[in-house]
């Protein structure tokens, strides 16, 4: 049973439980400095404390709003610009160099600039998430359309199809598969943008709590917040994976 691929999740859970047990034992034996590597029980207590008094919910709401807002805007704008650049040469000449430059620069360094422009509120975090996602989706769509089989395009044109027929029956299905394939990466980028923006300057959010934990040298709280962010992103990954399988079942 243990070698059956269907039970891979059980092996993963067992390995994780073993890691936690060794970590806890090392902490109890005094082999780890609790200031830098607190025991899993202390991390769990810090995580439970966040939910017990309800103070985590406004921070989760702020991070989710920024990440999902940036994700939605980034996907929409990235798809539109990617399609336009792939189908119209003039747009490609204008957009591709700009997107290449944005892709070459570590976009998280734009966070302080967005704070100056848009303030410490939600807008600066949405803007950073948007930039991270939009550049990714632009190149995904642009590459997806450019790599469409030219013979398929020629056959549609031979059968009397116009530009709209190409977009509807050839380009959009290709773009959908590429975008959905990149959705998990886009979700990660969106939460990266939101948390980094909150870490730089914010009054609430998971990134703000991380900054607070860092300033107070509270390693247990930092680990708890990292685990919480991982759990949230993994849940969204699961939803995105199921959506991808459902929407691409024709493939």
Strand count, sense and closure of the main sheet? Answer: none
Helices and strands, in order, run as HHHHHHHHHHH
Can you tell me the residue ranges where pLDDT is under 50 for at least 5 consecutive residues?
none
Q: How far apart are the termini? A: 32 Å
What portion of residues belong to β-strands? under 5%
The best one-word shape is globular
Going by helix content, strand content and strand pairing, the class is: mainly alpha
What is the tally of beta strands?
Answer: 0
Average pLDDT number: 84
Please give the share of residues in helix: over 70%
What's the tally of helices?
A: 11
- Global Rg: 22 Å
Report on the architecture of this protein.
By secondary structure, this protein is an all-alpha fold. The chain is built from 11 helices and no strands. It has helices spanning 8-28, 40-52, 56-87, 89-104, 111-118, 122-146, 150-158, 163-181, 183-200, 206-215, 219-247. It is globular, with a radius of gyration of 22 Å. The relative contact order is 0.13.
Secondary structure: elements and pairs:
Elements: H1 8-28, H2 40-52, H3 56-87, H4 89-104, H5 111-118, H6 122-146, H7 150-158, H8 163-181, H9 183-200, H10 206-215, H11 219-247
Helix pairs in contact: 2-11, 3-4, 3-6, 3-9, 3-10, 4-6, 5-6, 5-9, 6-8, 6-9, 9-10, 9-11, 10-11
Please provide a brief summary of the model.
The protein is mainly alpha-helical and 251 residues long.
């Amino acid at each position: 049973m243990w070698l059956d691929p269907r039970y891979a999740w059980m092996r993963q859970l067992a390995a994780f439980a073993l890691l936690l047990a060794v970590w806890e034992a090392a902490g109890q034996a005094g082999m780890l400095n609790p200031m830098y590597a607190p025991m899993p029980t202390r991390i769990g207590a810090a995580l439970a404390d966040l939910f017990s008094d309800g103070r985590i919910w406004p921070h989760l709401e702020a991070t989710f709003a920024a990440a999902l807002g940036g994700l939605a805007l980034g996907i929409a704008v990235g798809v539109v610009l990617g399609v336009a650049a792939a189908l119209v040469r003039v747009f490609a000449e204008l957009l591709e160099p700009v997107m290449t430059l944005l892709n070459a620069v570590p976009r998280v360094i734009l966070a302080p600039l967005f704070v100056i422009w848009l303030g410490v509120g939600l807008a600066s975090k949405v803007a950073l998430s948007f930039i991270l996602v939009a550049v990714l989706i632009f190149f995904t769509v642009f590459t997806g359309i450019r790599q469409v089989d030219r013979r398929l395009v020629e056959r549609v044109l031979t059968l009397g199809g116009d530009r709209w027929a190409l977009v509807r029956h050839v380009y959009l299905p290709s773009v959908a598969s590429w975008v959905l394939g990149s959705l998990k990466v886009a979700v990660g980028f969106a939460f990266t943008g939101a948390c980094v923006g909150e870490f730089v300057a914010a009054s609430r959010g998971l990134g703000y709590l991380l900054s607070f934990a860092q300033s107070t040298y509270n390693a247990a709280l930092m680990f708890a917040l990292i685990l919480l962010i991982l759990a949230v992103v993994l849940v969204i990954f699961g939803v995105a994976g199921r959506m991808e399988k459902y929407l691409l079942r024709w493939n």
